[in-house]
Design goal:
Layout: E1 10-11, H1 13-18, E2 25-31, H2 35-39, E3 46-49, H3 65-74, E4 82-86, H4 92-103, E5 109-112, H5 115-121, H6 152-158, E6 163-166, H7 170-173, E7 198-199, H8 215-223, E8 233-236, H9 241-253, E9 259-261, H10 265-269
Parallel strand pairs: 1-5, 2-3, 2-4, 4-5, 6-7, 6-8, 8-9
Amino acid sequence: MADYANPDALVETDWLAEHLDDPDIRILEVDEDTSAYEKSHIKGALGWHWFNDLHAVPQREYVDQEGLSKVLQNAGVGPDTTVVLYGANNNWFAAYAYWVLRYLGFDNVKLLNGGRKKWELEEREMVQDVPSYEKTDIQVSGPVRGEYRALRDEVLGKVGKVAMVDVRSPEEYRGEKLAPDHLPQEQAQVPGHVPGAANIPWSKTANEDGTFKSADELRKLYEDQGITSDRGVIAYCRIGERSAHTWFALHELLGFPNVENYDGSWTEYGSLVGAPVER
């Protein structure tokens, strides 16, 4: 598949259409709200809210392995189930969920290439029926992969020492905006970017139909700005979902061995007292 390092991380819409009734496949739509899911979704899919279902509310921290086990149990995911994730915005939050699951040690997960956008462009069947599945007793017990995640102190200690990729829009990178236009501009943050960070918006990794560009195209996109596989890379955005999409492109599709997602991203970094900032 487009010469990716890990082609099994993706499934195509044709494949999913042929496996909608496979009992060993569990389809999950993940987004920042569930209104689109409530209107229509892929047959057999359940809806996850990126924050409420994957975070230890009220903290801004993920569920632990036990918490993830409960979420998967309630979705009817068993030890032999393959989870297929998709969502809107070219899979922003689906890629985020993929990263969280892999970070917490659940590996039988794939991303639908093109997400909801491609499925709709192809005029494939969408339904309103919400399925129910028998609860399982799955337990997530693999190692938590701390190497996939950059925390605040690590980021501060690595400024200027590793490749930083700011995947936000150029306007956010330059400090003209603090968030995408459809979101409020939080005043707790200062505008700008991490010193030395390359601005490679997540959207440049996608084709018009929402699918990922080929491995050669992706590699050139990053290499043109000095992002190569022999360097450590930290990706960030505003809250970690767009940078999870970039983490997927770099780590899963290109096979870069040392890529971290800074999920605190600019919401955290831009609020730190004394943190170095460029504009």
